[in-house]
Amino acid sequence: MTFDDIRNIALAWPEVTDGTSYGTPALKVRKKLLVRLKEDGDSLVMPGVLQDEREMLVESRPAVFYFTDHYRDYPMVLIRLSKAKRSIVEPFLLRQLSARRYLTTPEENPGLRRGGLISFFRKQRASRPA
Questions:
Q1: CATH topology (fold) of 3-127
Q2: Angle CA(4)–CA(97)–CA(102) in degrees, nearest 5?
Q3: Would you list the DSSP string of 33-90?
Q4: Which of 9, 103, 120, 130 could bond to 108 as cystine, CB 3.0-4.6 Å?
C-alpha cells in the first residue's frame, strides 16, 4: 500500500479531509488527526492503538507493525505501508474515524478499549504453527 491508497480509501468517507501534520501528509476528521505519513515515507502513524494492543500487534506481525521510543508512551502504532494490505489497515482507519467523529475517549468508545482487533490477532497468532 501507499499513502495515496490510504488517501483514496479515507477521502471517500464523510468529513475526512487532506491536511498535514508535523510537515507530512495527513488525513483529518473535524480538524483532528485521523492518520499521517511518517517522515520515512513508508510508515503510517496510526493513533488510537492502546499499548497492550500495540504490543500484541508488534509481536504477531513485526514486519507490518512497529513503534519507536518516541511513540512508546502514546496510544499509537506505526504500520509499514510497503508490507501492509488494505484488509489490515482499513479496520484501524474505521475505528479511528469513529472515535474522531463521535466519541473521543476509551471510556466513551468501547472500540478504543481492549477487544476487537486484539481478539482477531490473538486468534491468528494462536493458529500459527510453532
A1: Aspartate Aminotransferase, domain 1 (3.90.1150)
A2: 160
A3: EEEEE-TTSSEEEEES--HHHHHHHHHH-TTTEE--GGGTTSSEEEEETTT--HHHHH
A4: 103
What residue ranges do the domains of the chain occupy? Answer: 3-127
Nearest to 53 by CA among 127, 125, 130, 129: 125
CB 109 within 8 A of CB 102: yes
SS3 at position 21: strand
More confidently predicted of 15 and 37: 37
The answer to whether the beta carbons of residues 100 and 31 sit under 8 Å apart is: no
Give the position of cell 521510543: 69
pTM of the model: 0.77
The kind and range of the H/E element at 114 are none
